[in-house]
Amino acid sequence: MLQSRTGDILKKVVELYIARATPVPSQSVAQEAGMRVSPATIRNEMAYLEQEGYLERPHTSAGCVPTDKAYRYYVESLPPVRLAPAKQALISHLFHQIEKESEKWLGLAATLLAQLAQNMAVVTQVKLPGCKFKHMELVALRDALALLVFVLHGAKVKQKLISFEAPVAQPELTVISNRLNAACSGLTAGDIAALEEGLPPMEKLVIAHILEMMRAEDELEDDEPHWDGLHFILSQPEFARGQRVQNLMELMEQRSLLRAMVPAELRVPEVQVIIGRENRSEAIRDYSVVISRYGLPGEATGTVGVVGPTRMHYLETIPTVGYLASVLSRMVSGLYGREPQGTG
């Protein structure tokens, strides 16, 4: 554990490097740290920090650059910070305007997060552990043909045409719908399959189509995430040379960046920070990730996060990710008729 003065000097070096993206000399720290110590003392402290692996020098005569170890110390020393009220109000207002248009939530979240964090944002759709039956309707079309409208928890709607062996009228279809809604509400495909054997032929035919759609949904990989803000990364001085950006672009093209970003344990409502070499994937070890789950734990969760250089504005990015995760959790809770869990 660093002594108080040494830690304060390290935090000032990190803050100056985040702001300027150039190696930080001891003179700059002496001028801006507001500490009643001599420049020589600051030089000695910085030399100690370099020896301990918190700082490094690109060139012998240059100033110092923070290492991943320094950023970790800086992030761990940050006090709990709430997003500025004006930014909270902006986010809440914009989401209120599209509250009834769930298909727009993720695009708005990605755009807002990229703009506020000035880095690349990623937001994924909520994913169910196993899709669940919510509601169905059968609509008579002509003769023996009907339209099955099937709703899953999470507001996903599926439609399919069903051909019965004999003509069927709307009143009979309504009776079938009511019976199946009462029997299957909230059940998974496995639960519904267990009920299938004891059903009358027409209901069994409908259930067979429903199970087909549910099993196909369960086998789907995650939907393509919503990305925004790549141009912010491309404008950072760290990525003026192409290899770092090329690694990121290759992951995006292979649809594997999200897998590389998400840590093994990520829970609602925690915001996690993964810095540089802490990332599991070699390809993003020049980056930091600030990431959180949102939604209903154990039922329907998605991911919201930021990717950027290790020289990231953590003090702004962490509360922004936390607040957006809390807003999305409230929206998802509304879809499910649940009380949202508190998030940062």
Characterise this structure.
- This protein has 13 helices and ten strands.
- It has helices at about 5-20, 25-30, 40-50, 70-75, 85-95, 105-115, 170-185, 190-195, 200-220, 230-235, 240-255, 255-260, 315-335, and strands spanning about 55, 65, 120-125, 135-140, 145-150, 155-165, 225-230, 270-275, 285-295, 300-310.
- With about 350 residues, it is an alpha+beta fold.
- It is about 45% helix and about 20% strand.
- The longest helix is centred in the last third of the chain and has 23 residues, at about 315-335.
- The chain has three domains: about 5-75, Arc Repressor Mutant, subunit A (Orthogonal Bundle); about 85-125 and about 220-335, GAF domain (Beta-Lactamase), CATH 3.30.450; about 135-220, Enolase-like, domain 1, CATH 3.30.390.
